[in-house]
C-alpha cells in the first residue's frame, strides 16, 4: 500500500529566543517491508542526515538567529507492505538485542505492573499471540485517548491512571514484556486506516526467540501492518520521538501538529 504523507509541526514561543537545537526523526526507516519512494523535510535552517545507534535517520536543526516560531514540514510517499502477524522481518542489528531488555525511567516495572502482566500471560511470552493477548489486556485496562498530553507517563502511572495516549500504553507494554526478560522497543511513526484520521502514533516491537521482531499496536490491540509507517525505534519514546529538544525553552512552547495521509493500493 502506498501512503502519501504530509506532517506539519508548528512551535511558537511566548517571546522571541536567540538559539535552539532539535533532533528530528522524521524520515521513514529503511526496513524490508517499507520504502520511501520520495521524502523531503523542510525546516527554517539547514539540516544534515545522520544515522543514530538504533539505525534511525536523524537530522539536527540548529537556529542561531532570533525566532519566535518554528515550522517543520515532512512530505513524501512511502510504500508499505503487509506484515504477517506483525513480523517485521530480518534486519541488520546495529546494537545487541539484549539492549532493548534494559528498563528506562519511563518503562520501570513495579509490583503493580508485574502483577498485572503475570495475571494476563502467566506462562510468559512465547508466541506473537501471547504478545497480542497482553496488548489487548492493556487496551482494555487503559482507555486510549488520542493526543493525550505531550509529556509521557511512566508505566506504573499509566496503569494507575487507566487512561493514556499511544505512547503511555506502549510504555506499559514495554515494562510488562521486559519484566519477563524479553527485549522490546518503542516505535514512533504514523498510523492510518481507511475511515480513520491519520495520526502520529507509537507502538512496540517485541523480540521473540524463533520469530524475531513482532510489531504490535497496543492502542488498537492489533499487529502492526501496512497502515503503520515506521519513523524510529529506541528503548522508549524519549529516544524515538519525531522531534527532541536538545536546547531551548521547550516547556514554554505551544505546539500544533497536523498529519494527513492518503492511501492507494
From TrEMBL:
Position of the signal peptide: none
Domain of life: Bacteria
InterPro entries: Bac_transglu_N, Papain-like_cys_pep_sf, Transglutaminase-like
Positions of the Transglutaminase-like domain: 158-220
Transmembrane segments: none
PANTHER family, per the entry: BLR5614 PROTEIN-RELATED, SLL1049 PROTEIN
Protein name: Transglutaminase family protein
The species this protein was found in: Achromobacter spanius
